[in-house]
Input
Amino acid sequence: MAGGRDLRALFSTNDRGLTAQEAFTNRQAQWELVAAALTEHLRRTSAPGFNVEDLEAPRHNVLVFHGVGGIGKTTLSRKLEATLADAGRRPAQWGEPTWQTGRILPVRIDLARSAGTDFEQIVLTIRAALAGIGRPLPAFDLALRRYWDANHPGEPLEEYMRHGGLASKFGQALPQQMQSALADVAQTLLLPGTVGSVVGQATGALVRALRERRQTVRALAACTRLADLLEAEPDLDTLSYYPHLLAWELARLPTGKRVTPVVLFDTFEDIGDRTHRDLERLLQRVVWLMPNALFVITGRSRLQWADPALQGQLDYTGPAAWPGLAAPALPSARTTPGTASHGRQILVGDFSPEDCDAYLARRLSREGQPVIGDHIRQVITSRSHGLPLYLDLAVMRFLEIRRTGRTPRPSDFAHDFPALIARTLTDLTTDERHVLRSVSLLDAFDLALATRAAGLTHEAPAQRLTERPFIRESPFGQWPFHLHALIRSTIRNADDQTDDRWSDGDWRAAAARAFSALGEQWSAGEAPDRLLLVGCLQQGLPLARDYNLDLDWLTDAAWTYVGDSVWEPITPPAAAGAPSPGTSADALVELLSTLTRRQHEHRARTVSRLTAVLDAELLPADLQEMALYYRAKSLRDIGRAAQSRRDYQQVADQGGRLAPAARRGLAHAARLTGDFPTALAAAQNLGWEGRHQRVMGDLYWLQGQPARAAAAYLAGRTEAEQHGKAGEAAHNQALRAFAIALYAPDQATAEIDLAYQLLAGLNLRATTINVRRAELIRDAGGDSVDDQIATLRTELDIAGLASLTPAIELAGAFHHAVLDDHIALNATLTRLREQTSDEDHAYFVDIAHFMAGLPLDDPSPAQWIDGEPATRSRWRALVTARREHLGSLR
Output
């Protein structure tokens, strides 16, 4: 819905065919909150026990919308004013009002410094708006006239209203009503002279009459505090108590004349700061003394009135006084999108992508069609992060480019606007600005991290900054606070022209402080904390990369990350510049990114990326060893066994951290070729670091001894759990489930379920495949196994896990042997021979023959630990036992 002519856009082009409108985009959630609050307010004020003269009851007459500069609070305030004044101007998407009784009178007051609104004008605006009810409000009018004559001698109120714009907005009814009220009082008290000459006499006489409870002033005598206010010195402080008289007058209006003011205070952040609250104190007094009016306040920050610490700075403080302002955040369907609720304090959120597109489409049009094309709108919407101010600035950039004679292109809007920085920093202190720039380097932060990054010795500026609406809070994150994405991007990347802008050296110093602070938080952890580790890596890696910092604590953190075998995503956004590594931090980012991504991409790609890291020679020796070891694993996975063994041997010979793991890799290599005695001897010397129990289990099941394998895997899982290695524990459990499925399918389901539980939250593709293999073995002889095998073949091909493909075919051979399906078994044997032609896993062909009880004319060179006959017998017994098991189920 259009919000009126956009004069700034209109005067930015000579194109008279262009329609420039202020676009109002859906704020339905906020409207629903206002409507609900107003409905509840009317219910409360119409209840029999409600009393406007009760100065001790809690106040429920405030609703606060707060948010970053440019989020659309002023537009919302204006639209609320228009809708409350005339239901016909309500946006179509906003629902019908839910209140049924009484007249609603909106009064919008802009508190912006540029508007020049002072407290006198605020009080006069509220009273002038109430002149529309068409009758004097004598208690208030007499007090106001006394104040005016004392503080503006010789200046008629009519002239003041005309110069201040109040007369054009509300007319001259107020001076006339005040004169009428004063004349009525003078007549009641039988005072001589004209109205203008007897103001002082009328006030004194009225006070005496009120004190003496004369019958002639019985109506005004019902206002118990009128005499006190008329006797008080008529200064600005006294003026701030006069709204009590307004509330009293409104409460005694006849039913047919009853009116409920809705006062909209906009730009509340401009009335002062957290130290100087003089004007805020006066405004809060107005709100408190008019409990029958609803106040809708829009500003950048939440109101602190419910904070007991403000006692003494403001008159009414604490949660007992303002229950709605102190209420904690509660999830509500009405608060999304674009709204986060804190009781009666609502954070005005960003526009949805659909709202952004609608805004841009309506803002500039020609003959009803959008001037800004689809592709440009998509780019602007994406970069705006839903901030309306960004959309507005992008529209002006669109017009600016058109003025040069060039047609705007989508690439023209990959742009940050320095004006956003000025709008964000405008009401921050110097220290708060310093903290803001520092935390823009971080994805998330807490008070300690923000303070250290800023190089300050006290947390107060960081604490104040977290109360600003552009700081978002996620209480369940590792660090609770993060900066609005667009504000962060702009501060980091735009051409900052502010007086206290940072140099390149300032940014690098802040990055070094933030990097050190992250390292200190990780090192200070009393117990292993995986979330903290990953969070520190996610934030520390881009800092080290982008500002060319030494690796420092990142080296130990990287080893801890790799050692757990969990593989959470930690890849930071790509850096600008050359794609190949240029520093040690670049290389470490690429190394860890590759190790994480290998769970999701073809292992040949992993080999290529790791080779590039190794060839760059930018990492220290121990991290080069890490890259070499994982290249060996990936080479094995894609079936390049000889190259894999060479890399393993080099890592083992270096004797570094991964030497035991490399020796395990060499033991695996011996197993793959069928040299089982050598693999067994190596396994017995590997220890926990070499995962000896898992290697033993891998050997036992190949010999047709799955029960011994299951016991070894259980021991390996237990050791992994004792060492806090979640990935290794899950891997052992997956293999244990497979082994148990071979000889006890009824028990396998529970083991498979446990394996999936241990895999929850881990990125271990090969381990997951092993659980699927256990499911195949458990289901062998059933109807769905062939489909399961076909699916797994496809997944392994996509992942580049060629080393696991023969294992899946062997599971298929077990299935076919159980069914005694020689045709399918022959097809499987053909595939197995093709897959094991390079001698690795060649013994799988032997085992398939053992399972089916088939003669073996051309055996592999496998050296079975206790001979071929015993191994053949055990494998055949497993198939026979499965057939008997299936027969018992029929």
